[in-house]
Design a protein that fits this description.
By secondary structure, this protein is of the alpha/beta class. Helices cover 32% and strands 17% of the residues. The chain is built from 16 helices and 13 strands. Strands 1, 2, 3, 4, 5, 6, 7, 8, 9, 10, 11, 12 and 13 form a 13-stranded mixed β-sheet that branches. Helix 6 crosses helix 7 and helix 10 runs parallel beside helix 12. The termini are far apart. The relative contact order is 0.11. The mean pLDDT is 95.
Length: 517
């Protein structure tokens, strides 16, 4: 637990902020919470790009986290997590943790939270940056951004050119937060020329999308993607269909689309939840109704295509996945008597994930060669979800980076959670408390059960921070971390950590052999 001991102040371009100085891993850390980085996105600004925050007179109290973006409660709610406070008009805020070390020009790590672009907050307990900042000598920033329909609803054809980027305003929020960092982080001791943007799940997908957004160039020098992808997007035709579906759930049609600008946010969230349920019934993987849209001013082409042609080539990248990314979708999906057998669900996931039809038997053989035994139905479905949603998009991004000016590193996290009798394995999001040194936080307890190895957490957080410092992940106890290249050398993060050549090669080759189109 971090206990407040004294006050701290900093002067930003917008005004003076007051935070607290507390004891954390490695020494004292000053913490500033809920700093606005952009103006209100409500009222006339709903669905429009962010604008810089207005200034204030006097000293602004920043000792309490700011509200999250509007969202529905997660079901089931994450264990030990308090209900989030949200506000449409005040959600564009961020938190800063800065260590008490001599000098200035510290590297900066900017965290983008996950939550399927539907939920989450930069103030969630597992993202408390105090321990990471104190132990590593880095400045940690966590941000909020617009979610769901408010961040991704495609309205260009319905409301006119002013809304041509409405389906990407969540990503524009992240860019505005990074511009705030450029303006202000030196006041907290940070180096605006040494910024690493990192995130997990949807947060990592946001990072992967930023790599393909022309406006992101120069705002960060390094990127870390935990369970992410540069392929989470839609074309405008698909985004427009989802908009019409949401309109209908709001009791509106295309002729009344402008009513969305004044619709109470609670009604919008109610319709949004119905849409999520519909998407959940259409997939055995992860329902993702809201995604950025390509062919728009801020995202003219698919991000992976931009990476292949050299956009942000100079950015260093560290990217990886957890071994059992799909276990939540398999083990915690409500039982439905109408669900087909696991093998049929696997075939559907493979087809949706671009593996092509009729290849389920081939996939089972590839997985069996890795396991050393014939996989059962649950193992098949879990692996297929892990591959389709997370691992193979990461592999394709690694391949797209071939020849980049920046360095590229790969990892696979394999420490298994003891939760649910070990059924979840190295599940989605399990890596987060290791990186943030929050293994004992109430939010992490469900997954770690007090058994997570502290040494592995120290190695991971140190390696992440070393990457932010210099572009080379390293830590005492870790083997030398090689560049990702033709040998596909990858750091396996477990006890003990080790380097492997092309882990799970058979599955990567299965997906690489998928038919075009």
């Amino acid at each position: 637990m971090i206990l407040a001991t004294s006050a701290a102040t900093a002067t930003t371009a917008e005004g003076i902020v007051r935070g607290t100085t507390s004891q954390a891993d490695g020494g004292n850390v000053s913490c500033f919470l809920g700093i606005p980085y952009a103006g209100s996105p409500a009222g006339k600004r709903r669905f429009l790009p962010p604008v810089p925050a207005a200034g204030w007179a006097g000293m602004r109290d920043c000792t309490v986290g700011g509200p999250a973006a509007p969202q529905n409660p997660e079901v089931p709610a994450p264990p030990a997590c308090k209900p989030r406070t949200w506000s449409e008009s005040e959600c564009l805020n961020l938190n800063v943790w800065t260590p008490d070390v001599a000098g200035s020009g510290l590297p900066v790590m900017v965290w983008v939270h996950g939550g399927a672009y539907l939920s989450g907050s930069g103030s969630d307990g597992m993202y408390d940056g105090g321990n990471l900042a104190g132990a590593s000598g880095t400045i940690v920033v966590t941000i909020n951004y617009r979610l769901g329909a408010l961040g991704f609803l495609h309205l260009a054809e319905l409301l006119g050119d002013e809304y041509v980027d409405s389906s990407n305003v969540a990503l524009l929020d992240v860019l505005e937060a990074l511009r705030w960092v450029q303006r202000n982080i030196a006041s907290f001791g940070g180096d605006p020329a040494n910024v690493t943007v990192f995130g997990e799940s949807a947060g990592a997908a946001a990072v992967g999308t930023l790599l393909g957004m022309p406006a992101s160039r120069g705002l960060f020098q390094r990127a870390i993607m935990q369970s992410g992808t540069a392929e989470r997007y839609r074309h405008s035709e698909d985004s427009a269909r989802i908009t019409l579906e949401l309109l209908s759930l709001c009791g509106l049609d295309s002729r009344r689309a402008r009513d969305l600008l004044t619709l109470p946010v609670e009604r919008l969230l109610e319709a949004q939840e119905k849409l999520v349920q519909r998407f959940g019934a259409r997939t055995y993987a992860v329902p993702l109704p809201f995604q950025p849209t390509v062919g728009t001013p801020s995202l003219p082409v698919p991000p992976l295509d931009s990476v292949r042609t050299g956009l942000n080539s100079e950015v260093d990248l560290l990217i990886g996945t957890n071994l059992n990314e799909g276990s939540f979708a398999v083990e915690m999906r409500p039982k439905n008597p109408s669900d087909p057998p696991f093998e049929q669900r696997t075939a559907a996931v493979l087809a949706d994930g671009r593996a092509g039809p009729g290849r389920a038997g081939e996939y089972a053989s590839a997985l069996g060669s890795i396991l050393g035994a014939k996989p059962d139905g649950k193992q098949l479905l879990e692996a297929a979800i892990s591959d389709a949603v997370y691992r193979q998009p990461s592999n394709r991004l690694l391949d797209a980076r071939h020849g980049s000016l920046g360095k590229t590193f790969s990892y696979l996290f394999t420490w298994r959670s003891p939760a649910m009798g070990g059924k979840l394995g190295a599940c989605h999001a399990l890596d987060i408390p290791f990186v943030f040194r929050q293994l004992r936080s109430p939010e992490a307890e469900f997954l770690t059960r007090g058994t997570a190895p502290q040494g592995l957490s120290e190695m991971m957080s140190t390696a992440w921070a070393a990457f932010a410092h210099s572009g080379q992940p390293a830590a005492v106890g870790l083997p030398d971390w090689p560049l990702y290249g033709p040998g596909r050398r990858t750091m396996v993060l477990d006890e003990p950590p080790r380097v492997e050549d092309d882990p799970r090669r058979e599955l990567r080759e299965f997906w690489a052999a998928a038919p075009e189109g």
